[in-house]
Amino acid sequence: MAGRKRRKMKSLAATAPNNGAASSEEREEFDEQNSLFRVPVDILEQILCRLNLKENILASAVCKQWLAAAISVRVANKPPWLMFFPKFGDLVEFYDPSVRQTYSVELPELCGSRLCYAKDGWLLLYKPRSLRVFFFNPYTKDVINLPGLELTYQIVAFSAAPTSPDCIVFTVKHVSPTLVAISTCKPGATEWTTANYQNRLPFVSSIWNKLVFCNGLFYCLSLTGWLGVYDPEEHTWLVRVVPPPRCPENFFVKNWWKGKFMAEHNGDIYVIYTCSTANPVVYKLDQINKIWVEMQTLGGLTLFASFLSSQARTDILGVMRNSIYFSKVRFYGRRCISYSLDKNRYYPRKQCYDWGEQDPFESIWIDAPLDLSAFA
């Protein structure tokens, strides 16, 4: 609409207001149209700062004044970085997919640890030998310890940064086909709280399941696609009556436990299935109708998939939108494998992800640092 108005204004400008041949009606229409965009700069910036990135870009096409104001308040999100645990030594690598650059830093604090989860720039780690569970910020080197707990075949997640009063650590463990044990803990606590819960629908908990925190609840997707939900406020566990997402053909033939991912964004839950040379399939949970809906487009969303925890972002500039970025870097660390839902193809071309070649515990997506001083 803005484009049609501007074209009409240009047409009117050819005759108004300086062209004597223009009628008074045309000059009046020109003045009326032009005045629509003459908004005081401070008010205009207040309006534009409330728009998302896509709306901001569209608004910037109105006129030069709007362009300048839109750029001055435009905010673009940073994609997360891909963190690689060292196989030997203490040198940890971080890959920034936006500029295709790798940074390295020595983190001896991670020696002997196993990755569990990442959120809000923090890692949750576990030392199998000592049963130590702790948070670690790789940029500030801050450590926050939790009570010890044996983590064998269960997944672990946390709701918020450990510096937040809303932080809850959650893990669920298989006891029997009809029973799970759920343990929770908060930073500063002296022990974990554990309770057993009945499964009213098929649900087998293992380290191969997926886990996200969304709208105050922990959502756990089992190997076969059943969705368990834990409410930390009410201390309730329920396996939802939601039919599992339809897997791609041959999904269970090879590496099925590595090729599934789960992410949350603004109250929506997404599941990604990949399988050999088949294109990835993305589902979004329809909470009202209790079904998984296959997504043909992400509407500008970008998904960053890794085995332990995945992330989602909006308002990322450039070609990264509407794509899935996987936790694999090729070509001497210069290209991260991605899949575009707009183009229905992998980048680099024909670089389908072979999940069988990667240790699923060696990498994870983590929020990018606010500055690069930690890597100076």
Automatic annotation (TrEMBL):
Pfam families named among the record's database cross-references: Beta-prop_KIB1-4 (PF03478), F-box (PF00646)
Q: Where is the F-box domain?
A: 37-72
Q: Which residues form the KIB1-4 beta-propeller domain?
A: 94-328
Q: Where is the composition biased (Basic residues)?
A: 1-10
Instruction: Using the UniProt annotation, give all residue ranges assigned to the region (Disordered).
Output: 1-27
| Coiled coil (UniProt feature) | none
Superkingdom is Eukaryota
The name on file for this protein is F-box domain-containing protein
Q: What is the lineage of its organism?
A: Eukaryota, Viridiplantae, Streptophyta, Embryophyta, Tracheophyta
